Here is the input.
Amino acid sequence: PTQRMNKHNSSTTAAAANTKHSQPTMQALAIALAALAMASSIHAIDPAFRVALTNKGLEYGRDVLLPILEKELQNLQIPDISGSASTPIGSIDYDLSSIKASQISLGQTNLAIATSGVTASTSSVTVKMTAHWHYREHSWPHVSDSGSVDIGASGASMSVTVALGMTSKNEPSVASGACAADIGNLDLDFHGGASWLYNLFKSEIEDVVKNSLKGQLCTIIKSEIDTEGNKALSTLPVQEQLDEFAVINFELVAAPELTSEFILTSHKGEFFNTQNPVEAPYTPTPLPNPAPGSLTRMMYIFMSEYVFETAGFVYQRAGYLNYNVTPAIVPPSSPIQLNTTDLALLVPALYKKYPNRALNLTLSALSPFIDLNIQPKAVNLTARVGVTPVVLLGPGQGVEAFTINTTVHATADATIHVDGKKNSITGNITFVKVDIVLDSSNIGPINVNSLQNSVNFLAQKLIIPELNKICAKGFPIPSIDGLSFVNPQVSYADGSIIVDTDFNYSPTF
Here is the structure.
């Protein structure tokens, strides 16, 4: 039973893409933009969980992903190019095949956020490629020849805009927008066979190659963003299952918002029972918006009181928080043991009716179980627990003596724990006091004030330590694979917890 409460409180505290070589490259680009933007049945409108990815975070992601993209682009294969041309020896048909990149430098790369989406642009791109050339004369005797060609491009540039949205299943989505490519300067150097012939009219072929490359690049990129990008995003989890009773739902409640300084995603942030999901009887308090001009970190996370209160609702309804405290659990050093003799002075009516009997204490979470009040300088928590002494009359026999309802008051501090694979919010609870009221009695009138010290002892020595065991475990903050927080800081606002952090990112695709 003690283990059950531990689990509970860990939740509450805290045309073109037709070659196999082009797919990994453009998939990397699509996932890179979309994954950075995302940092996972909607009924509530207001989000309880928000993530803001700032320009600093996007720029860091660009710096991490750029070498990876350059490496993958080495495998880029362009579809064959063919045409006809007039030459000193007559009209010929020609083709360039097996066009492969051998060296690519993306030069200067920038990411910009606008309301229309995230735009990735590159300039001063240099590309070296190799290909096989072949020609055949139109007229008899249809002379043909072949060889190799080196293709060099410099001063190339490209830009593509990716719009961020939300599917009907409340999952993130991406859609390619405007795309432009300029090859800049292109030079062809033919080798072998009648390469001297190709070199005579290579300027004409260069124009054909440039136009073909421009069209192919945008077609490939847009296809990979729309197909592979959304395919990858559909695999991102939108909920985190903690145990057989509860999951945390992080579905989007609205499409991402974009400003010139950050991308903001809004999530449900609610606990649900795994077997019988029911909306909690709470309303999320409005979360603060990122303050423009003051975003010095890569990422900001906002969590409302609602996240933690719905956790208490789920576990309380499941009866998961009900357990018994037996005499064996009470430490021998305790001044009061669980028997009617030790309670004779505090509750005379109990000893009078059941002298020299052992007791169990039945603890049950009351509804509402958890109430969290977050203020800029403090986090105050109350937990409502019913305590019922059960007199043991014999094997399998017991009778409830009375029930008191307790309200445990405590303060809480939240921290972020990073273990390299996931980032979790953890906490620590400090006991303040307990309020007690009599709910019912089967032994006549009781002066509950006489039990105040005993209940304080119970709260400090049993309830609070058990809560802190779970607080130390925490619950995971959703993030993409390979991302770990760096120097996260926790602060508080009215009704919400704010985490600002930088991060390290090691892509797993």
